[in-house]
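Journal club prep, notes for RB
We'll compare a predicted complex against what the paper describes. Inputs for the S-adenosylmethionine case:
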Amino acid sequence: MTLRDFIPAANQGADPGLYELENQALDPEGILWTELEKAAPWEDRTLVDLGCGSGFWLPKYHSAHQLIGVEPDESLLPLARARTSQAEVRHGSAEHLPLEAESVDVVHARFAYFFPSRHLDPTPGLNEVARVLRPGGRLVVIDNDGLHGEFAQLLGASAPAQRQGHGDYSTRWWAQRGATTTEVMSSWRFTSRDDLEAVLRLEFGEVADPWLAANPQAVGLSYGYLLHTWTRP
Ligand SMILES: C[S@@+](CC[C@H](N)C(=O)[O-])C[C@H]1O[C@@H](n2cnc3c(N)ncnc32)[C@H](O)[C@@H]1O
């Protein structure tokens, strides 16, 4: 199946091993997870991790009744499928969900597909998510906060952020579609300086260098998220 909306991830698609370190360092205090559960509880429900990549987060949803990962990158599917026997991982994408209509309670999209910008309109994917959600079901999009925290400073200096437009572009896009947005301040904590440097260079290239020079002892940084929550009428 050709998935025309599939755009290989520059970070995970290029270096899944290093992206594993990146995921391991995220949200050490579990602040984000508490907010995700508040936004749309998944215990005993059907949850889809859309754009699940190598499936790093799938085991965290163990209390779901049914757990489905959807991923367009065929090179990542075996990694995701090996992550937990509880999840069924299907080949698909935001605009082509291999799911029945009104069969899902919660969809999570974590840094996947929903990157609204002046050049990219993810409305087709939102329409497809609306098709598979039950009435009252929720889509929670986990996005970077482009305005608050040290990660946002790096993001603001990077080329993708400049293409997207002002730091609150995605919040305005979601508000126009009736979604609510919650700001969550968390952190990134690595076990070594080498890991931090490698991940920052994967994400930001040479944009990371001035920040690393100005923070020579750092093994982590503050990291703001935006959770955009859209409820199916
Ligand atoms: C930055 S990675 C994040 C992976 C995973 N959500 C995580 O947090 O570990 C972005 C993921 O989105 C996937 N992706 C790319 N285009 C997509 C689309 N049209 N629909 C759904 N996922 C897509 C990529 O293949 C990749 O797995």
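Talking point for the session: The radius of gyration is 17 Å.
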